[in-house]
DNA sequence: CACTATGTTGGTTG
DNA sequence: TCAACCAACATAGT
């Protein structure tokens, strides 16, 4: 489900309901979501008594900053957070509950159970899994034109697979890669090290502006994504190619083609994006 | 009913 | 080094 704009929207909508809440009870109904510590009881015990001081984001990861630890959460395809009164009935796929000292609790819901949670000591987030190999967030200074060009020069993989690689830049997924490459007029199978400096700069610029616009629209709802208040995103109205197979290209009116790149469904205007 | 696809990523294989 | 494939899991569409 969520890429950077959706995770950022979840962060923003969630913050006002969980900041300064203290965890009193933790329930885990699907233990495989908990990756660290490996013992689920230990996971619960570390969280009890901890207060949520802030929620940050890096790429597609949410970072719940607690007093002594950071809870690092990845939503993968279908993960969702929402806050409920404790007496509200659980939804079908609620797998983890963080119950506060107030009347409310934070619930993690995940139809496909792919999501992950790690607890790490505060200050050691970047030194270990799951963030250690993560590249810069596109909104960070570290994602500079020079950095990006250097990384692309160093590989002859297709540009689409490189943009999906979270160790290069963290936050783009299938929707925003297709949209970015369309706006930059680059074919997804183009080899990264064959791109000119100008083309690389254009890809970087379009990636950042597409993500910014999607954040402003509250993310993209194609199938099931909603923010932590159950609201849909609006960016799906702005999509040029993703999910637009056989529809007219907004630039040239030729039909959008769907193909397979790196095993992922890939949407492209073959007239505007030449190989 | 069978088969495919899905906003992710980690591991294996060749 | 990299592409291809599979795995995790549930659901919707053809």
TrEMBL record:
The active site is at 2 (schiff-base intermediate with dna), 3 (proton donor), 60 (proton donor), 264 (proton donor). InterPro entries: FPG_cat (IPR012319), FPG_Glyclase (IPR020629), FPG_N (IPR035937), H2TH_FPG (IPR015886), Ribosomal_uS13-like_H2TH (IPR010979), Znf_DNA_glyclase/AP_lyase (IPR000214), Znf_FPG/IleRS (IPR010663). Residues 2-115 form the Formamidopyrimidine-DNA glycosylase catalytic domain. Gene3D superfamilies: 1.10.8.50, MutM-like, N-terminal. Binds 1 zinc ion per subunit. Transmembrane segments: none annotated. It catalyses: Hydrolysis of DNA containing ring-opened 7-methylguanine residues, releasing 2,6-diamino-4-hydroxy-5-(N-methyl)formamidopyrimidine; 2'-deoxyribonucleotide-(2'-deoxyribose 5'-phosphate)-2'-deoxyribonucleotide-DNA = a 3'-end 2'-deoxyribonucleotide-(2,3-dehydro-2,3-deoxyribose 5'-phosphate)-DNA + a 5'-end 5'-phospho-2'-deoxyribonucleoside-DNA + H(+). Coiled coil: none annotated. Residues 240-274 form the FPG-type domain. Keywords: DNA damage, DNA repair, DNA-binding, Glycosidase, Hydrolase, Lyase, Metal-binding, Multifunctional enzyme, Zinc, Zinc-finger. Its cofactor is Zn(2+). Its EC number is 3.2.2.23, 4.2.99.18. DNA binds at residues 93, 112. Involved in base excision repair of DNA damaged by oxidation or by mutagenic agents. Acts as DNA glycosylase that recognizes and removes damaged bases. Has a preference for oxidized purines, such as 7,8-dihydro-8-oxoguanine (8-oxoG). Has AP (apurinic/apyrimidinic) lyase activity and introduces nicks in the DNA strand. Cleaves the DNA backbone by beta-delta elimination to generate a single-strand break at the site of the removed base with both 3'- and 5'-phosphates. Monomer. This is Formamidopyrimidine-DNA glycosylase. It comes from Ornithinibacillus massiliensis.
